[in-house]
Amino acid sequence: MAVFIFLLAGILTLTHRQQEIAVQTAAANTNWGLGFGESGKQPTGNASVDFLKQYSAYYVGAADKKVIYLTFDAGYENGYTPAILDALKKHNVKATFFVVGNYLNTSPDLVKRMIAEGHIVGNHTNTHPDMSKISDMTSFTKEITAVENKFKEITGQDMQKYYRPPQGKYSVNNLRQANELGYKTIFWSLAYVDWYQDKQPTKEQAFQKLIPRIHPGAIVLLHSTSKTNSEILDELLTKWESAGYTFGTLNDLGK
């Protein structure tokens, strides 16, 4: 009996230590990153699905469902969002637009259109800082609630509680903070370099990244500031649909 208790204590100690190591490892990963393997398969993140889920955080949906969750980061308006919204409307696809405070201040009519056409408007922070460097709850909350308040002022509605860390920079403490505020933190499982205004990818370069790497449960990150995205979105959605994919919303995650 004594031997059994000793062994059990050893196992529990080892398990606790493994959990501590997992937390420490995740805490060091303040830049969201992905590793791609076989084409058409889900990539691995630098934090696991199970680890993220304990903080109501996600980077991918179910691996057995050919569903895409389309998201756009909107730091400012570059004149391309109307065309993006037109393509989404044509395909009856509902996306999520993660907006910063500047976007709400400069483009309230587009925000109203997003809501009117059934899209989710999510929280991308007020000033787009490196949130991994913000450790105190007061400062974190200030970045989040400023966006909530402006959104309600514009739309008369409460913002749905989806949060995307600017540039994918995060800490485990940030995940806890967002969760305490009732937010789901949303990373991504597919993106490409589309955000440089003066160095936009060609249509061919975009498709080379976005077609073969699509996968079941993909949370796709695109930028609404991209001229290329505005020009290819209609065809891109058609290609994904032809491959048997449908489109869900972030409200479906975890169900």
TrEMBL record:
SUPFAM superfamilies: Glycoside hydrolase/deacetylase (SSF88713). Residues 66-248 form the NodB homology domain. It comes from the Bacteria. InterPro entries: Glyco_hydro/deAcase_b/a-brl, NODB_dom, Polysacc_deacetylase_ArnD, Spore_PdaA. Pfam families: Polysacc_deac_1. NCBIfam families: spore_pdaA. This is Delta-lactam-biosynthetic de-N-acetylase.
